[in-house]
Design a protein that fits this description.
The chain is α+β, with helices and mostly antiparallel strands. The protein has 14 helices and 29 strands. The strands form eight sheets. Strands 4-15-16-22-19-18-17 form a seven-stranded mixed β-sheet. The structure holds glycyl-adenosine-5'-phosphate.
Length: 534
Amino acid sequence: MANPSKPPDLMEAIVSLCKRRGFVFPSSEIYGGLNGFFDYGPLGAELKKNIRDCWWNDMVRRRDDIVGIESSIIMHPRVWQASGHVAGFTDPMVDCKVSKQRYRADQLFWACVSVEVDQPTPIGELPLPEFPSVSLGGNPEKFSTIIGYVSAIESERTNEELHEKAESLKRKRSFRGILRPLTINDFTVASERDIPHIPSPATGEPGSLTPPRAFNMMFETYVGALRDDSALSYLRPETAQGMFADFKAVVDTGRVKLPFGIAQIGKSFRNEITPRNFIFRSREFEQMEMEYFIHEDADWATCHREWIDWCLGWLASIGIPKSHLSEYNHPKEKLAFYSKGTTDIMFRYPFGVQELWGIAARGNYDLTQHANASGVPQMIFDEATKKRFTPHVIEPAVGVDRIFLAVLCAGYAEDEAPDEKGRLEKRTVLHFSPRIAPVKVAVLPLVKNKPELVKRAEELHARLKRRYAVFYDEGGAIGRRYRRQDEIGTPWCVTIDFETIEKDGTFTLRERDSMAQKRINEAELFALLEKEVY
Ligand code: GAP
């Protein structure tokens, strides 16, 4: 492999590859798309299924202490009252009255721009007359004059953008003096005095942004023929409440004893104010969540750490390198009152380091809430102490779509490979782990006009596809066919050639990452797949 690298605009390259090769399309694109909704094409559906299957196998089937469920997407509305979502599942929202754009207040950044001058600016020359110049540190020769405000939406360039805008404001106002350092804040901490002066990112002009107000992100719907409050319900904003609401049913079926987990994979819906960064934050997405119930006296911190390590190990098993990951511990003062601790596994996306997987120690809050609201105790009998108690829970919660994007970002590379004549040409590769690759093996007959050779290739293809996702391709030069598979992340190509039919039945196995080739037989190929695809 020669000079592997990532393109400067990795996101653009990934979005374009996803569309070109059928991984992800905008939803209902023929009608112009719908913001925050996506469709997964043939390769995307396979990749997503593989991510789900790996998680389910490792989290549920291969463990003795975790069971899986599938709860309904629309649950009794009282579930969401008890869980606190009806009252508190909100984001702070800001409207621009002129452009009609909406922003999440915590993603809208601003700064007050001031310059250092030798003399106080006369009132008549002040750009913002209600802010007179102030002396700096009591120095009679140093004053600070506010010349305006700047704003920018959160991105990997927020700070740079605000500084550029501050410089440009100074030029526009023709102010001399040194620009004072900017104090950057998000809109949730903008005061009544600041808000009228903060420019809308849409128009660049101040005066149109509203104060932040709470916006509930749950999608509402009506169950049954009536459209009144008695029929109001919600599309679930998380799968977790399914596990809490079914806790007693799972315990009563008798298969579990503490510590044990209940897991599920399923769609969740959030009316995000600003869906963005492709599939990173969308309005319909899929979660894989597990609630691990432990004794009320158990050492929750050790269990929490064990689950963080489990998640890190699992991400490595599907090919996400450690170098892209970090941990973020939520500060104590920002945790909900019932929470004992939350750690997010962060991934270095091209648009910044962002949450991939949250691992929360939630105490017994959820079960207690449901016990109180439903009147049905959510308890376990402790044989040792002969006492009943409500178990505590550790919750690893991750989005399938965020993992999907992470494997694309980590796996995407451009390098060079020799063409038919040995000349180096650019190649795009997705370095997917064989566990999740949408196609495991491509079967390529060297030529398509030799019936015996084609027959052998078709037979091998038929045997392989009983167990694996495989692809048969007889069109074009062999190098081009390899390149097509590299671009969709197929780990291996096998080429059926004249030696296969004339000599010992072996074929060429070409490995995607190293591009190395060797001859193997069918039993060896199946053994390789058995070992690597699990
Ligand atoms: N039950 C806890 C819970 O739902 P969360 O942090 O809100 O916690 C868990 O969500 C995970 O779901 C996140 O770490 C992320 O991977 C994924 N997720 C959340 N909102 C998402 C969205 N709008 N689009 C895609 N994935 C999302």
